[in-house]
Amino acid sequence: MSVFITLIAALVVFSAVIAIHEFGHFAVAKLCGIQVNEFSIGMGPVLWKKNHKGTQYSLRALPVGGFVALEGEESLESQQAEDARGEREAEDVNPIPPEQRTGIPLPEAPVWQRALVMAAGAFMNFVLGFVVLIILVAAQDDAITSKTVYAVQDGALCGQTGLQAGDEILAVNGRRCFVANDILYELVRTEAYRADFTVKRDGQKVELPDVQFDTWQDENGETHMTLGFSVYGIEKTPLSVLKEAWNSTLYYGRIVFTSLADLLRGRESINNLSGPVGIVTAIGQAASYGWQDLLELLALITINLGIFNLLPFPALDGGKVVFLIIEGITGRAVPEKLQSALTVAAFGLLFALMLFATYNDIIRLVTGAM
C-alpha cells in the first residue's frame, strides 16, 4: 500500500469522524439559540470563509477535523474565533453585523441545553457509525449471519456438551449477543476453550453451562479453537438491514467498553495500546483490502470516539457534562478555577498516554510487529 493512498485514506477517516463530531455541537447549539461564532472544516490558516446569520463558516488549510467556537465558551478555538472577529471588525473586513448575532452566550443557556450541546458531538459519531454500518450490511453479497445454529458437526465437542441445531444463541458467558460476531468475540476471550451459553430452544430460555470446544495445534505449536457449528443466514430486507446495522453499532460500542475494562483489570497489557501512528497504519491496511474494510474501520473509530468522549473525564465532553450535572443538582456552577485545573491535569494525562501509545506504535513498526 503506497504512502500516498494511506495518507489520503487517513485524512478522509479522521476528517469525517472529527467533522461530524463538531457538526453535532454546532447543530444543537444553533437549535438551542446559542451564538456560534465559527464553524470550521479543517484546522490552521483560513482558505475560505463566509459570514451567515452571525456565524463564520470557514475552510482551513489542514484537512483534519474542524472545530466549533461558541460565544462565551472557555476554549482555545472559541477565543481565537472571538479575537479574529474583533480584528475583522476593527479593520472593517467582512464584519458580522451586530444585529445578526442573535444567539446567547453559552454560559447563559440553561444547564440542560449546555449538556445537550456537549453530548451532541458523541451522538453524531454514533449516527455516523450507524449509517456506515447500514451501507456495509446492505452492500454485502452474502446473507446476514444469524445467531441461530443451523447444524452441529458430527462428533463436535460443543454438541456433546450442550449445543443443538435450532438453538438461538442469546448470550455467551453472561454477555448478550447482539450479532453473530458477538459469539466469536466472546469465544476468543474464553479460557480453556469452554463457555457458558444462554440459548432459546423451542421458545424457552435454556442455560448451557460449560459448553466445550475442540482444539487443534498449528505448526508453531499454538492452540486454536474449532467452532464446530454453523448458523443460518437471514434474507436481506430493509428491516433486517436496519436491525443488523443497529445491533452491529451496539456490538462495536461494547467492544470499546470491554477493551477498556480488560485494560483496567490487567487482562490486556498497556503495551498493546495504539496511538495515531498505529491507527494510520491500520487505516492504510484496511484501504488496501478495499472500501468495505475501510468503512468498517471508520465505523469502529467513530463509535470509539463517541464513547471515549462521553467518559466522565474532565478534558472530555463527558467531563463537561458531569460538571453541568453537578451545577443542575446544586444550583451552582463548579468553580472555574477548579474546572480549569482538573482539565489541564486531565489533558496532561491524555497527552502522556498518547505519547506512550505512539512509542508503542514506533517500536512495533521498527520490529515489524505491526
Description of the structure:
There is one protein chain. With 370 residues, the chain is α+β, with helices and mostly antiparallel strands. Helix content is 52%, strand content 21%. Helix 1 crosses helix 3 and helix 7 packs antiparallel against helix 8 (291-309). The longest helix has 32 residues, at 336-367. Residues 87-94 have low confidence and may be disordered.
Instruction: Give the SSE order as H and E letters.
Output: HEEHHEHEEHEEEEEHHHHH
Poorly predicted residue ranges: 87-94
Task: Please state how the strands of the largest beta sheet are arranged side by side.
Answer: 5-4-6-7
Q: In whole angstroms, how far apart are the ends? A: 14 Å
Q: What's the pLDDT, averaged over the residues? A: 86
Instruction: Please state the oligomeric state of the protein chains shown.
Output: single chain
Portion of residues in beta strands equals 15-25%
DSSP strand tally? 10
Number of helices: 10
Which structural class best describes the helix and strand composition?
A: alpha+beta
User: Tell me, what's the shape?
Assistant: elongated
Return Rg in Å: 25 Å
Q: Report the biggest beta sheet as strand number plus sense, adding barrel if it closes.
A: 4 strands, antiparallel
Helix percentage range: 40-55%
